[in-house]
Amino acid sequence: MRLLDSLGIDERIGHSGRLDVAIIDLPDFDSIDLGHREIVERLVPRVDAIVWVFDPQKYADRAIHQGYLVPLAGHRERFLFVLNQIDLLAGDELDLVRADLLTRLAEDGIPEADLFTTVAVGRIVGIDRLIRYFEDRLRAKRLVLGKLAYDLHSAVKGIGEIVGVREGLDFDQRWEETRGSAAQTLAAGLAGASEISTMERAGRRLAVRSSPAGLVTRSEEPPHPEPLGRQEAAIQTAAGAIDSLVTDLAFEAGGFFGARLRSRFSPREVGAQVRRALEGTKLDEPPPPNPSAWWKVAGVGQWLALAAVVCSIVWAWARPSILERGSWPWPVIVGVAALAVGFGVFRLVRASGAKAGRRAAAVFRESASESVGAQLDRRIGVALRTVLRDRAELAGLLTELSIEAAKLESTPPAD
Hints:
Helix content: 55-70%
Structural class: mainly alpha
Strand content: under 5%
Largest sheet: 3 strands, parallel
Number of strands: 3
Number of domains: 2
Radius of gyration: 47 Å
Number of helices: 12
Order of helices and strands: HHEHEHEHHHHHHHH
Oligomer: single chain
């Protein structure tokens, strides 16, 4: 149907003949319409057989020999020639015309042509022989197509097993999970406990800056750099997680692609790429902790508490009699209460500052994790995805071949 549609053939007649074939009646070769020749040239490579029908009057016409047969001689294996209306020839004329036609066909580049002689009107001659020829050819084609379809199925299955495309692999989700875990591990190596401690100290300094304690806590011991052993442990842990994923993918892929994955991403190579990803990560300076509005209020309260302590001391010094036995020692009570309140507020402010520092450290670590993750994706993920994309494309092609083989088995051949 698609062939007829592409040729623009609208007039179609069904038949229930002995042969399961579609027959296309082409225009006469001596037509002056150039479109007819174009149809023939388009059709010849797409059909199983072309039957050229001659009659005794026009079999030597130069138009068909030079205009059609010579240019199309490369398709001669699909050509069948019929000399019709042989009832118009008398005596030895049939043998002479037949021999002359075979000679001309040989000169056209079609030696040993299959030539049938027929009479199609009146007393039928040679038609049964022509039909038997097509039946034999159709039967042979069915055998060839069946063998071809079987071989194609076997080849597709064998290729799938050899190269490793038996089933799809859920790569994207697994890679995202593995990369995220590895990135967090590496980020912890970049911004580990010492970095968190530094951010906590920065938060505490910022929190108590407005309080009396800020006068004595502006300078603290500088932070120690993250131990190299911790970064190395982070690299080993992250590389181990990625290598485990590569091993699983290689095992599940199997065949050529499994070997290619394992060869391209050996444990040594994975470790080297993880190290380069960590070294290639460029981090910004850690963000400062976000101050809380109540820290200044708490600082004012601590100054007031300090003032109350000082006042109580002055009070006790100016009126020592108030501290005599038998009376309430109000200067002491006020001083101790102010000292307790001031110290309690100081502890709360420091704890709040440390919490703000930890939040800033968490933001910094998340930023480091994203940067490291981008490096891992660029150095490992893209290459992994490329190998598996090639595998998926081959699997798609093999699926298409399987579909075409099934069509080949289910579609009856046509001559």
